[in-house]
Design goal:
With about 120 residues, this protein is mainly α. It is elongated, with a radius of gyration of 18 Å. It has six helices and three strands; from the N terminus they run H-E-H-H-E-E-H-H-H. GO terms for molecular function: DNA binding. It holds the Pfam family Penicillinase_R.
Length: about 120
Amino acid sequence: MAGTGGLGELERAVMDVLWDRGDQGPVTVRAVADALAERKPAYTTVMTVLDRLAKKGFVLRERDGRAWSYRPAAGRDAYVARLMLDALELTGDREAALAHFARSVSNPEAEALSQALDRHRKSG
């Protein structure tokens, strides 16, 4: 997944459908459109969004008969991490931004971050 920043509203809704499926395998345009029925997007709109997401590197697609099936290129956690890294690029003082972030998280989040950093240090 490229560092392409945020997703548009419908792109995010489509990605949520794909991410929420977990490891259930690739999904067709029709299945995504059906999952978004509350929003009432046109089938062709969903097809265009999925094509755009594939070109941006957010989804992988494969032939499923005459149609395409789609699955996320990476998990939601990887997307959020990319957003956080992109946000750090906006600051002239990454250390200050990280320190402010660390002060802003809850104790359980701080502990999770500390454990992740420990694992990162041990892995080299």
